[in-house]
Amino acid sequence: MQRNGFNAQEVAFSQGIRVDSAVVYDFVSYWSVADRAVLIQADLSGHVRNEVIAHSVAHIEMAESPELAAALDGERWRGRIEMQVHDVVAHRLIPVGSLRDALEIANNLADVAAILGVTEFLLGWRLQHLANDEFAVIPVHLLNRLGWLPGMTTPYPYRCLWPAASSGEMLRQLAPGRHHR
């Protein structure tokens, strides 16, 4: 169980999304809408693994959206989709009440992220995109003592590959016997 209470593996299972691991070096995750499958780097730490699976599941959940279809066809900037996915994952893994509790305990980005069981990147994303009603829940002195401001960069911890026409074939080659059409 993740410290943030969101178990992406269980969510994937409940939605019929297969999650497999493989030793790969050029990406951290690969998702396929057609195969309803996610392939992730085998040696990820627990909180990064949870975050990566949640990220891939959010992509697959968008399968019916015209925006994702346009991005897959090269007619829409994929960065816009990635931003939507980051927002979904940040809200799922960092509820505002949990964020406030973590800010009460720790006073820097690394420690708050550790308490929440997320990467510094995702915490930074969540902070940068707090809604006005969420700001009302968190005392401003807790945010000020972080020493963090929007635009401060944190390392991007994972790179997901977008599916292509050969998506299923790639999954079958990397995890033989597990993915069938």
SSE blueprint:
Blueprint: H1 8-14, E1 18-22, E2 29-32, E3 37-41, H2 46-61, H3 66-72, H4 78-93, H5 96-105, H6 109-116, H7 120-128, H8 132-135, H9 140-144, E4 160-161, H10 167-174
Parallel strand pairs: 1-3, 2-4
Antiparallel strand pairs: 2-3
Helix pairs in contact: 1-2, 2-4, 4-7, 5-6, 6-7
How would you characterize this protein structure?
A hairpin with a 4-residue loop joins strand 2 (29-32) and strand 3. Strands 1-3-2-4 form a 4-stranded mixed beta sheet, with helices on both faces. Mean pLDDT is 82; it is low at 165-181. With 181 residues, the chain is α/β, with parallel strands linked by helices. It has helices at 8-14, 46-61, 66-72, 78-93, 96-105, 109-116, 120-128, 132-135, 140-144, 167-174, and strands at 18-22, 29-32, 37-41, 160-161.
